[in-house]
Amino acid sequence: MSTSVEQVTGEARRGRGSGEVAAFRGVSKHFGTVRAVNDISLTLHPGETVAFLGPNGAGKSTSIDMLLGLREPTSGSVTLFGGSPRQAILDGRVGVMLQSGGLMPDVKVRELIKFASDIHPRGYDVDDVLKTAGITELADRMVDKLSGGQEQRVRFALATAGDSDLIVLDEPTTGMDVSARHAFWAVMRAQADAGRTVLFATHYLEEADSIADRVLVVHKGRLIADGTAAEIKARAGLRKISFDLRPEDGADLSLLNAVPGVNSLDVSGHTVRINSSDADAAVAAIYRAGFYPRGLEVTGVGLEQAFITITGEQDAADRNTADRNTADLTEENAR
Length: 335
Ligand SMILES: Nc1ncnc2c1ncn2[C@@H]1O[C@H](COP(=O)(O)OP(=O)(O)OP(=O)(O)O)[C@@H](O)[C@H]1O
Prior knowledge:
The protein is α/β, with parallel strands linked by helices.
């Protein structure tokens, strides 16, 4: 089953503000022959928490750079709050946490945040920012003596300071330990509950699944899915079937290879796990083949499996197109 942006779309915006925070209109960005971003159109609405997912090199950072006016599109347009990204940033409407960019050294955390407040168009209370980000205990530490995870938390504090309308985070939890991540997402939820729009790129799919109310999947520069995590999981069309087989039931495991709709099959000890695109047919076939499955469970797959399926389908579709083009060319040359 192939999944298109049109199929997985729209529903994520239910109940959200109808205004426009950001808009990409037919945006492409090429670096020489590399099509880093390829004809992306999308709108972010007020109050959405949006996860931006994609394999390495998919075009997430390039898209974020264009959203923030750090790079110009090769074609198409990007607007923030109906105007230019640069203007929105000058107006203090955007809080940002990027992957790169060091913090100012030789100052204490409190001094750094005070300095950032002094130059921020909206200004803010330093103690409030420290408290909100949960880093009050780091206030008197030297910035260049922070651990990687602590530095991430300070960068996050700067991104959330200033009551901006949009917070953009590029892989914000990289380098954070489990408890720091939990604390981080608790703060993020509060930010989203306060009505701020949050866009974050991540490779941690379980974070996207539990935090985001809208998920964008980019692959090879194209937007290939846009919906809630539940919609994307459902559209991947997969169910997970698991059961145990006892040796005394005398099952011939090779018969499992003939079960229809099997996307992946894993037999470990007596436990069988199947990812299936047609769980009903698969379960019926398992019984028909004479198996006696114990503790049979059919559940939905996680966002990670859905992500692998959707990006894999896109790769297969691209290969088919390339094969067709080669065949057409060969035919043309033969004429
Ligand atoms: N300045 C540049 N010059 C040339 N190619 C670039 C440049 N910046 C990015 N690219 C290429 O554009 C593509 C998209 O890169 P991008 O950094 O946007 O991906 P990403 O989705 O953020 O990846 P990751 O998850 O690895 O951070 C990649 O093929 C990358 O090599």
